From TrEMBL:
Keywords: Membrane, Transmembrane, Transmembrane helix, Transport. This is Solute carrier family 23 member 1 isoform X2. It comes from Ursus maritimus (Polar bear). It holds the Pfam family Xan_ur_permease. Belongs to the nucleobase:cation symporter-2 (NCS2) (TC 2.A.40) family. It is found in: Membrane. One of its GO terms (cellular component) is plasma membrane. It is a multi-pass membrane protein. The gene is LOC103678264.
Length: 614
């Protein structure tokens, strides 16, 4: 991507449906402008398009807000079992830490990983094994920590109680993340992709959202009126008003100050809906329309219910590795988190293909998938070292947001990653975002989880759904992925083997719907007789092979500065499973990395720069 991109100018509103106009960079990309008209079925901004900087910031905020519920929910869910339910200040520290680490991991994934616009954040796949570990008798919170009148949050005794638990989580996450790093960078996940087809990925991704209907409904049920308004606004903006262009003031070009049409509702449906619903809750809080009694229906819809977090959080705080002390390791915790790692990896592979389809990119080749999983493992290692109490994974919620907004630019996700870093550094700002009323987040989740489920099911387009074999595999996997975890949660004592660590591993595996459904889909799809065409593997593998051979795939999934394709193309690197393949047909080896660094702005190398021939 070394070609220079020319400057752009805004169009007059009467000159057509295009919102912004810009010159092509010679490779089909657009910069600082609307890539396509709203009537096109393609994304408004594809992965290689570069929107104007202010749109990148605004759309990055939208992705941050989309992930906000999950980012905040993970520390708050763990707070009770970490003995922190009466310590909101430490909870805000955990929230800031997970913001900061998620920003680092997002930037690593965009620049060095799979290179798709996928936001990285705390994973719910680690919540179940974490809660299972903390429920052991050795880690149950003392009774006095459950009584707010007996808790002195500044006492050394209380500090040691919660810190030793989070250090245990840190050690388990860091060791388990090494498994993910090995699986990714060794190419093992790429090898497994030969056997993981649509009938494995479809139930796995669908079961990411389906089991969460209860929690999403509970959040929305705090005040169904507010939640319904949020849902109505998201649907209104993203579906009914998406083709309506709004005149926007613009400065630049020959006319300097003028107006230009912009499809505001199509690009920012979630952000607009959240802001309007939040504003309504604020008005209802100021006028005391919402009840002030903590036990009354609708109390949590008030904007002042989380005021303690905002008032106690510091303005600036820099998270650092080992901030809670030296991590500790136990066998039970490691095996439990490994179960979460397996489910997270299968989910992420499905997210890669879903994201590529939504942003107009070719399916990711194997070396990109290997690199993506390896970088996610590195992200989990960093999250464990920083002490977030959780790992990181690709956020399916934000993949769903791509389907609604149709904005798939990589630079938007770079802006979102930088925003997460800032939120992690400025504690007050991060705490302020955490005060979004619960029913607003619940309404947003109901829409997003529906989109994620549809994205998972859409993988079935590659298989023959007239086949009774395929209908059985998908239906049985989905149903067992809902039924088995529900039964195990209600009857944990029925699965006792006498070995505590083994009992925990079994319970964690069988209570993770993604793992149950994905495992059954994988097992049945690879054992029940069926042709490659019937299973969808013929088209599936053909898509992957075609992706690796196209110039578009090399441009999307290659490393920055042409590393591996134009420079650093040593014969030794071609044996690395995560290294991109060089461009074929030249018969020459590309320049070295040193030569890339000494290029002139025009793209020509300086005189005297060495060029190594094959």
């Amino acid at each position: 991507m070394s070609s220079a991109i020319t400057s752009c100018e805004h169009l007059d509103p009467v000159r057509g449906d295009d919102v912004l106009n810009c010159h092509d960079d010679g490779q089909g990309r657009k910069k600082a402008g609307q890539a396509r008209s709203s009537s096109s079925g393609q994304p408004i901004y594809s992965i290689l398009d570069v929107p104007p900087w202010y749109l990148c910031i605004l759309m990055g905020i939208q992705h941050f807000l989309t992930a906000l519920g999950g980012l905040v929910a993970v520390p708050l869910i763990l707070a009770k079992d970490l003995c922190l339910q009466h310590d909101p200040l430490t909870q805000s520290y955990l929230i800031s830490t997970i913001f900061f680490v998620s920003g680092i991991c997002t930037l690593l994934q965009v620049f060095l990983g799979v290179r798709l616009p996928i936001l990285q954040g705390g994973t719910f796949a680690f919540v179940a094994p974490s809660l299972a570990m903390l429920s052991l008798p050795a880690w149950k919170c003392p009774e006095w920590t459950l009584n707010a009148s007996l808790v002195n949050t500044s006492s050394p005794e209380f500090t040691e109680e919660w810190q030793k638990r989070i250090r245990e989580l840190q050690g388990a996450i860091m060791v388990a993340s090494c498994v993910q790093i090995v699986v990714g960078f060794s190419g093992l996940i790429g090898f497994l992709m030969r056997f993981i087809g649509p009938l494995t990925i479809a139930p796995t991704i669908s079961l990411v959202a389906l089991p969460l209907f209860d929690s999403a409904g509970n959040n929305a049920g705090i005040h169904w009126g507010i939640a319904a308004m949020t849902i109505f606004l998201i649907v209104l903006f993203s579906q009914y008003l998406k083709n309506i262009a709004v005149p926007m003031p613009v400065y630049g070009g020959e006319k300097k100050c003028h107006t230009s049409k912009f499809y505001l509702f199509q690009v920012f449906p979630v952000l607009l809906a959240l802001c309007l619903s939040w504003l309504l809750c604020f008005v209802l809080t100021v006028t005391n329309t919402l009840p002030s009694a903590p036990t009354a229906y609708g109390h949590l819809a008030r904007t002042d219910t989380k005021g303690n977090v905002l008032s106690q959080a510091p303005w600036f705080r820099f998270p650092y590795p080992g901030q809670w002390g030296l991590p500790t390791i136990s066998l039970a915790g490691v095996f439990g988190i490994i179960a979460g790692v397996i489910a997270s990896m299968v989910e992420s592979v499905g997210d890669y293909y879903a994201c590529a389809r939504l942003v107009g990119a070719p399916p990711p080749p194997r070396h990109a998938v290997n690199r993506g999983i390896g970088i996610e493992g590195l992200g989990c290692l960093l999250a464990g070292a920083w002490g977030s109490g959780n790992g990181t994974t690709s956020y399916s919620e934000n993949v769903g947001a791509l389907g609604i907004t149709r904005v798939g630019s990589r630079m938007v996700m770079v802006a979102a990653g930088c925003l997460l870093l800032l939120m992690g550094l400025f504690g007050k700002i991060g705490a302020a975002f955490a005060t979004i009323p619960t029913p607003v987040i619940g309404g947003m989740f109901l829409v997003m989880f529906g989109v994620i489920t549809a994205v998972g099911i859409s993988n079935l387009q590659y298989v023959d759904m007239n086949s009774s074999r395929n209908l059985f595999i998908f239906g049985f996997s989905i149903y067992c992925g809902l039924a088995i975890p529900s039964w195990v949660n209600k009857n944990p004592e029925k699965l006792q083997t006498g070995i505590l660590q083994l009992d925990q591993v079994i319970q964690v595996l069988l209570t993770t719907g993604m793992f149950v459904g994905g495992f059954l889909g994988f097992l049945l799809d690879n054992t029940i007789p069926g042709s490659l065409e019937e299973r969808g593997l013929l088209v599936w593998n053909q898509i992957q092979e075609e992706s690796e051979e196209t110039t578009m795939a090399l441009e999307v999934y290659g490393l920055p500065c042409g590393i591996g394709t134009k420079c650093c193309t040593s014969s030794c690197t071609q044996y690395l499973p995560f290294w991109p393949k060089p461009e074929a047909g030249t018969g020459e080896q590309g320049p070295s990395l040193l030569a890339c660094l000494f290029q002139e702005p025009s793209g020509e190398r300086r005189k005297g720069a060495a060029e190594t021939k094959l």
